[in-house]
Amino acid sequence: MADVNIRPLGDRVVVEPIEQETTTASGLVLPETAKEKPQTGKVLAVGLGRKDDDGDRIAMDVEEGQTILFAKYAGTEIKLGEKKVLIMKESDILGIVE
Amino acid sequence: MADVNIRPLGDRVVVEPIEQETTTASGLVLPETAKEKPQTGKVLAVGLGRKDDDGDRIAMDVEEGQTILFAKYAGTEIKLGEKKVLIMKESDILGIVE
Amino acid sequence: MADVNIRPLGDRVVVEPIEQETTTASGLVLPETAKEKPQTGKVLAVGLGRKDDDGDRIAMDVEEGQTILFAKYAGTEIKLGEKKVLIMKESDILGIVE
Amino acid sequence: MADVNIRPLGDRVVVEPIEQETTTASGLVLPETAKEKPQTGKVLAVGLGRKDDDGDRIAMDVEEGQTILFAKYAGTEIKLGEKKVLIMKESDILGIVE
Amino acid sequence: MADVNIRPLGDRVVVEPIEQETTTASGLVLPETAKEKPQTGKVLAVGLGRKDDDGDRIAMDVEEGQTILFAKYAGTEIKLGEKKVLIMKESDILGIVE
Amino acid sequence: MADVNIRPLGDRVVVEPIEQETTTASGLVLPETAKEKPQTGKVLAVGLGRKDDDGDRIAMDVEEGQTILFAKYAGTEIKLGEKKVLIMKESDILGIVE
Amino acid sequence: MADVNIRPLGDRVVVEPIEQETTTASGLVLPETAKEKPQTGKVLAVGLGRKDDDGDRIAMDVEEGQTILFAKYAGTEIKLGEKKVLIMKESDILGIVE
């Protein structure tokens, strides 16, 4: 989390997808295409929140470090050095895994 | 209900679908594909409600433990360990079964 | 009306469709497919009304027991024991038959 | 107008379409399909008006008995005994014929 | 303008299209289909204006008698006796020719 | 600018497109079809601004005489005597060239 | 940044895309078509912000000189002398690179 250097705008969050286990019971490693697209991720950075019609910020419901569930195909994929992260709107987050 | 560990965001609820009886009168067990998609479920967890334009929460109309009716194909299916649950918005809930 | 056990959410109502006469002048009973989809129904249950942007309820215009006209294909069909009922939004109701 | 027994909901009105003259100059009566769909009608009943976001009614601009112009294909056709009427929203009414 | 007998509803106006010159330099009269659809017209009647969310009228920007420019295919064509007029919303009016 | 006789309505502006140089380095004049559609123009006239939900005008950000950039295919083309002008909404203007 | 002469309107920003490295490890320079469309850019100019429903400006979240991430295909491409810049809305900006 230390080297994150994107400050998401508005009600956006930067999320690092958590890859599902790709080694099957028999020890086979599945190729990339056989893996299901992950729907859980760790929140790396949180925007300040969107502004309402009077220009006031609406506080965000998620915090840095939380593990979240998100809708399939949510967000935009961005390369952050070697790792791929997603920038999505808070409204694409379904829930927080506790 | 004890092992639920998803806190739904905003006006979302976590719902465990209630499978329709799949044993016919003659005792035949219907295969998965012959079953109608369930439209009733038990509410496992309830979000804090969506925020209105001033950032205030609007209270939810459903509570944990209630049996609800929901629109076909409502929500996103999530695997919660072995069981499949749905995360849907309160607006997808048609009514409460009493 | 006594055995209704669905409490519709928000501005939804539970409606029991009133089947059109299906016996023709000559006494023939028309098969199901030849019947026109009914557009009148009896209101079985009424929600508390939708919440406005401040979270206040907006009162409903229909009441339990009224006969209503509704748009074709309005609402979601739900089986309530043996009978089929519709859950629809008040905005799908065209008028009240007096 | 005496036997109207539908109370339209919200900002809806019940309109009886006025059939265009269907006898041509030469005295021929045109068959149903050759007639242009009428776009004028008499207002039979008027709803109380839609509720604004605070739940207050917004008064209607049309009154029972007025002759109106409406957009082609506006409204839902309903059989009122023998005659066919239209239930439409006030926003589908283009103007009042004076 | 004297015999206009339509009172447009809300923010609508009744407009009489001004036909473009259809006689060419060489004196040929162009057939109907070769004429460009007119985009200028004379305002015959003006509605009282649409109601805002509190039910108050918003005053109209155009007046009876003005010549206006309007978007192609704007409005609904209505026969007013022998002449064809358009009923359009004020938002379809691009500008006033002075 | 003197002979402009269209008063644009609401938040619309009348813009005279500025043709890109069509003479190439070698002196060739490019035919019409080879020219890129211009995206800069001079503001000939400015509306009073759109009305907000209370009926108050919202002031315009552009002024007569300014050179503007606009989105391709923005606005409606109108013939003003011999010259073609565009009537577009202020929201189609990308920026002001200074 | 000195020679920028576009003042973006409303909540728009002028962005100079930052080309990705196009020289591969082996020293090959990739042709234009093989390059990925850049998704980072430098903010050259910032609008005054959009007006809310009361006509008040909502302050912008980005500043001149910042490096931003933006959605693929965001904005409109404009030639500014020799260089191509993008004019986009602030809502197309995903985050600020720090």
Automatic annotation (TrEMBL), chains A, B, C, D, E, F, G:
Presence of keyword RNA-binding: no
Subcellular location, record wording: Cytoplasm
Gene Ontology molecular-function annotations: ATP binding; metal ion binding; protein folding chaperone; protein-folding chaperone binding; unfolded protein binding
InterPro entries to which the protein is assigned, alphabetical: Chaperonin_GroES (IPR020818), Chaperonin_GroES_sf (IPR037124), Chaprnonin_Cpn10_CS (IPR018369), GroES-like_sf (IPR011032)
Record's keyword terms, sorted: Chaperone, Cytoplasm
Annotated signal sequence range: none
A single cellular component GO annotation: cytoplasm
Pfam families: Cpn10
PROSITE patterns per UniProt: CHAPERONINS_CPN10 (PS00681)
UniProt xrefs under PANTHER family: 10 KDA HEAT SHOCK PROTEIN (PTHR10772), CO-CHAPERONIN GROES (PTHR10772:SF58)
Assembly: Heptamer of 7 subunits arranged in a ring. Interacts with the chaperonin GroEL.
Family that this chain belongs to: Belongs to the GroES chaperonin family.
HAMAP family in the record: CH10
Entry function: Together with the chaperonin GroEL, plays an essential role in assisting protein folding. The GroEL-GroES system forms a nano-cage that allows encapsulation of the non-native substrate proteins and provides a physical environment optimized to promote and accelerate protein folding. GroES binds to the apical surface of the GroEL ring, thereby capping the opening of the GroEL channel.
Protein name (database record): Co-chaperonin GroES
Species assigned in the record: Phototrophicus methaneseepsis
Underlying gene: groES
